[in-house]
């Protein structure tokens, strides 16, 4: 499929690559090292949108006329605080203990940027975790890679499979990309999948 507009996914996330591949739209991956800092006054979706927009700003001057870059950032919001990627296994364990038996929100901010257009949006999913045992948490930490995931877990991995009782909202948003919204916005940028 040759599209008049080329899509660039600015993410190393294997989950985002997998989700976007499901649309059967050709894309390339280009990643720049961008600091994921935000002002402390930002809350919930403001954080996710700010980070996605900040990542996109690193590409703006390099984009060709026929290119659109897609950036995204996913955060976990629990009881008025953000759980980003844990710095080590000890912090990952603390995060999973906090999520155990609680409801949290997964918020993904997305930015689509071209020479002419700029669109920032987000999606929110509510995730209900049952109580997790220490053995279950330790097993997950030992056999999976929680350090590259907001909230220290992947919905598609062991802890998500056995721990999540229900999700209100998009499953794919919890994975890292609200693909139903991305699909609609890509049309606005001239990327027509069908």
From TrEMBL:
Main location: cytoplasm
Site (Important for substrate specificity): 15, 74, 156
Keywords tagged on the record: Cytoplasm, Hydrolase, Nucleotide metabolism
Active site: 73 (proton acceptor)
Enzyme Commission designation: 3.6.1.9
Cofactor: a divalent metal cation
Cellular location(s): Cytoplasm
UniProt catalytic activity: UTP + H2O = UMP + diphosphate + H(+); dTTP + H2O = dTMP + diphosphate + H(+)
Enzyme class per UniProt: hydrolase
Function statement: Nucleoside triphosphate pyrophosphatase that hydrolyzes dTTP and UTP. May have a dual role in cell division arrest and in preventing the incorporation of modified nucleotides into cellular nucleic acids.
Similarity annotation: Belongs to the Maf family. YhdE subfamily.
Protein name: dTTP/UTP pyrophosphatase
Species of origin: Adhaeribacter terreus
Taxonomic lineage of the native organism: Bacteria, Pseudomonadati, Bacteroidota, Cytophagia, Cytophagales
């Amino acid at each position: 499929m040759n599209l008049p507009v080329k899509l660039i996914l600015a993410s190393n996330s294997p989950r985002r690559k997998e989700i976007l591949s499901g649309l059967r739209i050709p894309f390339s991956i280009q990643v720049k090292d961008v600091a994921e800092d935000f002002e402390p006054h930002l809350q919930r979706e403001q954080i996710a949108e700010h980070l996605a927009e900040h990542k996109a700003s690193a590409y703006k001057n390099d984009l060709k006329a026929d290119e659109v870059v897609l950036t995204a950032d996913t955060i976990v919001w629990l009881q008025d605080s953000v759980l980003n990627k844990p710095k080590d296994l000890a912090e990952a364990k603390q995060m999973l203990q906090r999520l155990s038996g609680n409801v949290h929100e997964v918020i993904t901010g997305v930015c689509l940027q071209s020479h002419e257009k700029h669109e920032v949006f987000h999606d929110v999913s509510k995730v209900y975790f049952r109580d997790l045992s220490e053995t279950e948490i330790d097993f997950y930490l030992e056999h999976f890679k929680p350090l590259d995931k907001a909230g220290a877990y992947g919905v598609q991995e062991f802890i998500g499979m056995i721990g999540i009782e229900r999700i209100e909202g998009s499953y794919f948003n919890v994975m890292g990309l609200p693909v139903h919204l991305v699909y609609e916005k890509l049309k606005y940028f001239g990327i027509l999948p069908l």
